[in-house]
Amino acid sequence: MSSNRDVAFMRAALAFAARGLGNTAPMPSVAALVVDESRDPPRILARGRTAKGGRPHAEARALDAAGAAARGATLYVTLEPCAKRSQTYYGPSCTERVLEAGIARVVIGAPDPSPFAAGEGAARLRAAGVAVVEGVLAEEAGRLNRGHCQRVRLGRPFVQVKMAMSADGFAGTADRKPIAITGELARAYTHRLRAGADALVTGIGTVIADDPLLDCRLPGMADHSPLRVIADTRGRFDPACRIARDAARVPVLVATAAPGDLTTRLAGLAGIEVMGVPESGGHLDLGALLAALGARGITRVLVEAGSDLANAIAAAGLCDELVLLTGPANAGQGLAALGPALAQWRRSAICVESRLLDADKLEIYRKES
Predict the structure, then answer these.
(1) What Cα–Cα distance (Å) separates residue 163 from each residue in 175, 214, 306?
(2) Is 349 left (phi over 0), alpha (psi -120 to 50) or beta?
(3) Facing residues of 14 across strands?
(4) Exposure of 236 by Cβ count < 10 A (0-12 exposed, 13-18 middle, 19+ buried)?
(5) Structural domains in the chain plus CATH codes
(6) Which of 173, 259, 278, 320 is deepest in the core (most CB within 10 A)?
């Protein structure tokens, strides 16, 4: 049974785990705390978070940091520890590491549907005499690991669509040119969203019209820029654009239904990969694209694109969350930010957050799976 103390330590672990989002694919960002509860007040002996690239796991890093002091202590972990490993050269599973360290009690946030855990981690710990408490802040822990869990269950990543619109609902001019909508704080928020994603998906239309970089430019977070994925049905990607010239620093994946010619044109450019994706109705099959990203270990996708691609994501039933930034000024006319499918998606979703970022309004809509 959990206590107020368990909730407090799990909340601290979740906050620590959230800082790793976007950096740990193909693994979830998990945090573990080794706590000496024999003291008054209890003392955190060590903590660990999933390493960049997914290994070592959080439990292993926390137990290594605690050393012999872990014996008899409590381990707080945001996701159920793995009970087996896909490859033996990764060493013992986290469950085995917990048992070897002599941990007396394990407190778990959310279950892990992965075949390497799926209830077996908690069961093995209990069978070995370790006290196990499950489901502490389970909703928050599940939401933090939603990308990982969704990839396991559905074979595709969690998809977050970000849109900005004027107070009267426009995202650009009638001829699809961008307009200034939000202020500095909202733009910084967008860069933070990028840092928490494994991949950022945009359309070739946005690349041609805006020539953006779509990286993370917050101070000290340049290495958190996600993989940039360009949906380019006809292979129009220009090797002279800024994203192409920046690909050696932050990789680029061009998804296209015409990979042959594009592969030839981009040959020799560092950091750029071309991936063939089938068409559907004259456009890229977005379900196939997301499945291909999931197969590569991508767990969280941020869609930063024009209204057409964002609307297509919603129409295909692939939008999991909408982040909507609304500026204070009217545009008067132009290109509607929310296409019909995305507007309908928004009406049927739950607004889970609404607040101001200076003069701009932030709203987050979500559909629970």
Answers:
(1) 18, 14, 8
(2) beta
(3) none
(4) middle
(5) 4-150 (3.40.140.10), 155-366 (3.40.430.10)
(6) 320
Burial of 205 (0-12, 13-18, 19+ CB in 10 A): middle
Q: Output helix, strand, coil percentages for the chain, rounded to the nearest 5.
A: 35, 25, 40
Could you tell me how far CA 41 lies from the centroid of its own chain? 35
Contact (CB, 8 A) for 43 and 35: yes
Q: How many CB atoms are located within 10 Å of the residue 135 CB?
A: 15
CA distance to 86, 253, 358, per residue, from 89 (Å): 9, 30, 50
Summarised one tens digit per residue, pLDDT across range 283-303 is 999 999 999 999 999 999 999
Are 367 and 349 in contact, with CB atoms under 8 Å apart?
yes
Chain segment 40-78, per-residue pLDDT in tens: 899 999 999 999 999 999 999 999 999 999 999 999 999
More confident position, 30 or 119: 30
- Find the farthest-apart pair of alpha carbons in the chain and give their distance in angstroms, rounded: 68
How many Å apart are CA 264 and CA 318, to the nearest integer? Answer: 31
Any idea which residue has 């109705």 for tokens?
281
Distance CA 71, CA 294 (A): 38
The tokens for 43 are 């003392």
Q: How far apart are CA 87 and CA 83, in angstroms?
A: 12
Active site residues: 59
β 199-203/170-172 pair status: unpaired
With vertex at residue 115, the alpha carbon angle to CA 111 and CA 120, rounded to the nearest 5 degrees, is 55
